[in-house]
Amino acid sequence: MKNSIITISRQYGSGGREVGRRVAQQLDIPFYDRELIVMVAKESGLSLEYVEETAERGTNSLLYNIAMGGQVPGLQMSGQYMPVAEKMYIVQTKVIREIAEKGPCVIVGRTADYILKERDDCLNVFIHAELDFRVQRVIAEYGIDEKEAHKTVQKKDKGRAAHYRQYTDQEWGIAQSYHLCLDSGHFGLEETARLICSAARGG
Amino acid sequence: MKNSIITISRQYGSGGREVGRRVAQQLDIPFYDRELIVMVAKESGLSLEYVEETAERGTNSLLYNIAMGGQVPGLQMSGQYMPVAEKMYIVQTKVIREIAEKGPCVIVGRTADYILKERDDCLNVFIHAELDFRVQRVIAEYGIDEKEAHKTVQKKDKGRAAHYRQYTDQEWGIAQSYHLCLDSGHFGLEETARLICSAARGG
Q: Could you tell me if A30 and A86 are in contact, meaning their C-beta atoms sit under 8 angstroms apart?
């Protein structure tokens, strides 16, 4: 396989995670989504919830930093006063690089595209869809009303864009930040996964 | 074929035009690039050069407007003082819609994606590549030096973005403005064309 590591960034509600799961299944390679969060939480000593939520916003949580006393167990290299979010990012970088070293896989989110940018075996994918498609998926998945779903989708995307901007020198959602961008609303999740597999296999 | 009309927008130097030509060849459908410019020039009475250049910049050419006396032959519907660029856009819209009505085809540039947005049989593609890849292609094609090539690429992209912004309610180069975005520098022109054909055929 030409592109053995597939990173997937996605708009909230686009079904990017589900597409990633199908790609991993079809290519028979490991899929890192929730597993990655568990690994980062375990290695950093931070809560699962914190690790999960921090990729959805651009600013550090001051309250959490104070609560954690600015320290993360097991991170000897970092100063005592380094913000928790920065420490978590260092652990995340280490974990993602270790995962990539192990061999072909699919990694969802966590700026993995940027963290692995020195590698030449990555296929960096961005999945998006029209707002209405995403709102309907969020309503179906979480059972919230349309107004709330609209608000959630827009807030999450804003947070992801800010987080991406903060930790990379690229722009989230701009075509040239990725090798391949697909509209999952246009293609459908199955066809989106098929096209990514085709691009990864290289013909 | 699921997506019978393929519109291709592209960064300058990305090889998007060549990719479009290959897609049309592989799918055995008409290819509109230079042909489209000729048709618009003929129908509007404007010069080939003006029609060609106007898609590369965001603002109207005042001097050309004055030179043309604000009139375009054959455009009864528009007022005498309508800017030439606007008149040309009306003709271009008409020509592109007529082309699409004829059947499957590939159309390069000219905001065809936006002009045909009411149709449900379009596949809107954006082709981009890293700056260095594009500069090297421009040097090879036009025999200009690296500094000049850099300047040309950046100026052309800026103009195309401004033109797209002026005539559509979408942003040029943002993933969500298109169904499919591909990095031709990463995939190579042949593989980029293959992936577009695969997406158009729908599996």
A: no
Binning pLDDT at 50, 70 and 90, where does residue A28 land?
very high
With CA atoms as reference, report the closest residue to B193 among B6, B1, B5: B6
Instruction: Say which of B181, B182, B203 has its CB closest to residue A194.
Output: B203
Task: Give the model's pLDDT for residue B87.
Answer: 83
Alpha-helical segments (H) within chain B: 16-27, 34-44, 48-54, 62-67, 84-102, 112-115, 131-142, 146-167, 184-187, 189-201
Interface membership of B32 toward A (CB under 8 Å): no
For B203, name the nearest residue in chain A, comparing CA atoms only: A191
A63-94 pLDDT, tens digit per residue, is 444 544 544 444 444 445 667 878 888 899 99
Q: Is A174 on the interface with B (CB under 8 A)?
A: yes
pLDDT of B9-53, one tens digit each? 999 999 999 999 999 999 999 999 988 999 989 998 888 888 888
* Tokens of residue A185, six digits: 């609303």
